[in-house]
Structures are given as C-alpha cells and as structure tokens.
Amino acid sequence: MKVEILSEKENGLLNRREIDVVLDYRGATPKKEEIRKAIVEKLGVNPEAMAVIKTRGEYGMNKIKARVHAYKTKENLLEVEEKYILMRNKLIEEKGEEKPKEEPKKEEKKEVKEEKAEEKPSEKEKEEPVKEEKKEEKKEPEKEEKPKEEPKKEEKKEKQEEKKE
C-alpha cells in the first residue's frame, strides 16, 4: 500500500499535526486498522497518539483519501478528540475508559472462572429463600383482597334490589 502526503499542517494550539494523505491499494478495500498501520509506518508517529479522523474511498479507483491527527502525547489526544473518534480508532473501550494495554494471562482467566463457579452456588442458595418469601407475601394479600371483594358484590346486589322496589 502506497501512502502519499497531500498536506501537513502544524496546529500548535492543540499540540497536533493535521495530515491529509492518499493511500493506493490493490484488491479489497483495506480496513481502518490496516490504514492506520500504513500511515504510522510512513509518518513515523506514535500509534497511540494518532487518530484517523476521516476516510473516503474514490469510486472506481483503488485510492483512499484520509485525514489524520497526530498528537505529541496520548494525553493530548484523549483531551481533544471526540469520544466516537477514539472508539472508532480503538483507543478507548465503549464505556469511555482507556483501553487496557496488557491482557490477563490465560492461567489468570481460569482462576477467575473457578472463583466465579465457587461463588455461584452460594448466590443461588441466597436467592431461593428470598423467592419463597416473596411467594408467601403475594399469597397473603390475595386472601385479604377476596373478603373485600365479596362485600362489594353484596352492596351492588342490595342497590339493585332497592332500585327494583
């Protein structure tokens, strides 16, 4: 993939460089991750302090125009760029927090799963008595409601009889 720089502007106020590039490619349209890698190789910038803002493919041609913001530090990037841009570039998770750098090892994941498995039976035991209590509570009000309904029916009957007379 060829990367050609169209324009480069230094924005001192936001501590970034605003760069417009054209990428020539062969075959299928490259994914944003591939575009990021190609731009990082060409410009020599820190991939964690760079955001691809916009990409646009040209119809019928194997070219993509892109706008890139390359910041001096990752902190500057996180302060200035919008949340959706950071999510699109996979610099933060969907919740809005920074993406963790290292993933836990497989062994640690297994231990966590085992701990959760041990906790689940105790949680179920706690939930069962609560459910039983709720059922009992529901039954009691129903009994109280039935006697209330019967006098109402009787009152209606009495009213009807009075009207007939």
Keywords:
165 residues, alpha+beta, 2 domains, 4-stranded antiparallel sheet, elongated
Nearest-angstrom radius of gyration? 33 Å
- Major sheet, described briefly? 4 strands, antiparallel
- Tally of contiguous helical segments: 4
* Beginning-to-end CA distance, first to last residue: 99 Å
Tally of distinct domains: 2
**Low-pLDDT runs:** none
The fraction of residues in strands falls at 15-25%
Q: Portion of residues in helices?
A: 40-55%
* CATH topology name of the largest domain: Alpha-Beta Plaits
CATH architecture call of the largest domain:
2-Layer Sandwich
Top CATH class of the largest domain: Alpha Beta
Report the CATH superfamily of the largest domain: RRM (RNA recognition motif) domain
Mean pLDDT: 77
Globular, elongated, flat, extended or rod-shaped: what is the shape?
Answer: elongated
What's the β-strand tally? Answer: 4
Question: Strands across the major sheet, in which order?
Answer: 1-2-4-3
Structural class: alpha+beta
- H and E string: EEHEEHHH
What does this entry look like structurally?
- It contains 4 helices and 4 strands; from the N terminus they run ββαββααα.
- It has 2 domains: 87 residues, RRM (RNA recognition motif) domain (Alpha-Beta Plaits); 58 residues.
- The mean pLDDT is 77.
- Helices cover 51% and strands 22% of the residues.
- With 165 residues, the protein is α+β, with helices and mostly antiparallel strands.
- Strands 1-2-4-3 form a 4-stranded antiparallel sheet.
